[in-house]
Amino acid sequence: MPSTAAREVPPLLLRDLAVEYRQREGVLRALTIDRLEIPPGTLCGISGPSGSGKTTLLHAAGGLLHPQAGEINWGEDDLARMGEAARDRWRRRMAGFVFQDFHLVPELTALDNVLLSVWFGSWSARRHTTRAAGLLREVGIPDPARRAGLLSRGEQQRVAIARALLHRPALILADEPTASLDAVTGAAVADLLVASARAVGATLLAVSHDAALLGRMDVVHRIDKGRLA
Ligand SMILES: Nc1ncnc2c1ncn2[C@@H]1O[C@H](COP(=O)(O)OP(=O)(O)OP(=O)(O)O)[C@@H](O)[C@H]1O
User: Where does the signal peptide begin and end (predicted)?
Assistant: First the structure.
């Protein structure tokens, strides 16, 4: 299991948060959170009906969107007060993302998919190549030279998890990580995600409808109509 400790993991505190989307019919208030605190290293599930605001919450907590009001405090850093460039830098430093449909480039090898952020960033490729190959071995991908498009769906999600772990994130944000996998493969991916976060002490925020995954979280917050239920 990936075992190198994460950087220092800050607590998350959301306060008076409001996220709105401009839609054709007008402005939709998608999320209203008075207060939500998540201690460092917590495995936190986010559940709720379709359209209730789960992904919006994940994106707000991960600095992928700018809220209309409120605070998104990861320790000393308030993402709500940062511009887009600062949030980009914060994300690259702090967060690893895992998505339902993997977001891999099928023509590239497993290794190159894990290293994509290194190509686009200013990190040293050689140092990261060794770590990326090691992570792929640890998540159960023995052949890093295999093209991602030739891997099974479960293997592709393993590659995506290795990619999320590359920069030793303090936070792992996963959006329906098992939803496009069959039950057995999903359970194995859930095991890997939980074990990976635990091994490095990272905070895990996982949006999911998957009872097996949610059952492995320390806490599950349910969202209904944009509010904590
Ligand atoms: N970029 C956007 N522009 C406009 N409206 C949006 C946008 N993203 C989400 N919404 C709306 O905000 C509400 C919450 O969406 P969100 O994706 O957060 O819900 P969800 O609980 O993750 O849903 P699901 O389980 O179906 O993925 C929905 O009504 C959705 O239509």
Answer: none
Q: For the packed helices 110-120 and 153-165, what is the interaxial angle rounded to 10 degrees?
A: 30
> What ipTM describes this predicted complex?
0.98
**Residues 79, 203: Cα–Cα separation, whole Å:** 17
Residue 5 resides in a domain: no
Q: Which parts of 26-92 are beta strand (E)?
A: 26-38, 43-47, 69-74, 77-78
Q: Cβ(50)–Cβ(117) under 8 Å?
A: no
Q: Residue 153 sits in a domain of what CATH number?
A: 3.40.50.300
| pTM metric for this prediction | 0.92
Domain count, the chain: 1
Residue nearest to ligand 1 atom 16, measured at CA: 53
Beta bridge partners of 28: 21
CB 27 within 8 A of CB 208: no
Specify if 7 maps to a domain.
Answer: no
Task: Find the residues whose C-beta lies inside 6 A of ligand 1.
Answer: 21, 23, 28, 30, 48, 50-56
Q: Which domain holds residue 177?
A: 12-228
pLDDT digits (tens, 9 = 90+) for 20-66: 999 999 999 999 999 999 999 999 999 999 999 999 999 999 999 99
On whether residue 135 sits in a domain, the answer given is yes
> Is 2 among the domain residues?
no
CA dihedral 214, 217, 218, 219 (to 10 degrees): -40
Q: In the numeric block, which tokens belong to residue 34? A: 């008075």
